[in-house]
């Protein structure tokens, strides 16, 4: 009887143990869902179009990225052209709607935040693994009625929580507390409408909420091109 009881307990415990997940396992499954580490690492540059909507206002834009180094976004709104660039540890922008057509250097705290734009959206956990950032599995919870794993990643620019779909292992959203110009706030994003391009499966819709914006911003990504030839001078601040 005792032997049978031990066997029964073991049979019950095995499934429980098999369903346990570690942060490293979740990240590896996320990378597999993307298309694999080799696919992610093979992308050195990327360009894509953006269509953005915030409080009924439509914006269009184009982003050009040298992965891990530089990112430039040119946006058009109400007939005005807005440019924002981060290049290594420096950044600059042109915003006629703020009263000037000349390029202005971005504050250091803004550059620190914008450096995250120099990576392919949806591949953040692959980058965390590559950079060997500390990762902690906070637990399993709900995000918009979905079961997700909450991973806390400590990056040089701060702590970011990444929410991984417990079924697909695709990245469902992020949360970060950022500080800018002496004020701090919580920035949240949600990823959806995953599409496969050249073997890499990435989100094509991003919903962003930030205290710096008057409302939720929904961004649709399209016409994504991997490894286009890019002239690095487009990231240099005009004199």
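^ structure tokens above, recovered residues below v
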């Amino acid at each position: 009887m005792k032997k049978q009881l031990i066997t029964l307990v073991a049979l019950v415990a095995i499934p429980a143990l098999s369903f346990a997940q570690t942060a490293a396992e979740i990240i590896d499954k996320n990378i597999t869902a993307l298309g694999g580490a080799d696919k992610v690492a093979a992308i050195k540059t990327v360009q894509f179009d953006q269509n953005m909507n915030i409080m009924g206002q439509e914006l269009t834009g184009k982003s050009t990225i040298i992965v891990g180094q530089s990112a430039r976004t040119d946006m058009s709104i109400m007939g005005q052209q807005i440019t924002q660039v981060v290049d290594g540890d420096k950044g600059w922008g042109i915003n006629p709607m703020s009263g000037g057509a000349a390029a202005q250097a971005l504050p250091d705290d803004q550059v620190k935040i914008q450096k995250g734009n120099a990576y392919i959206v949806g591949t953040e956990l692959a980058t965390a693994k590559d950079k060997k950032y500390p990762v902690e599995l906070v637990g399993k919870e709900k995000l918009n009625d979905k079961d997700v794993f909450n991973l806390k990643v400590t990056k040089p620019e701060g702590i970011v929580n990444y929410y991984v779909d417990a079924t697909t292992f695709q990245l469902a959203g992020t949360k970060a507390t950022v500080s800018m110009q002496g004020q701090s706030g919580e920035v949240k994003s949600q990823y959806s409408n995953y599409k496969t391009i050249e073997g890499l499966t990435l989100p094509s819709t991003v919903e962003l909420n930030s205290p710096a914006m008057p409302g939720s911003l929904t961004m649709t990504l399209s016409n994504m091109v991997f490894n286009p030839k890019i002239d690095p001078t487009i990231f240099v601040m005009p004199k």
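The mean pLDDT is 87.
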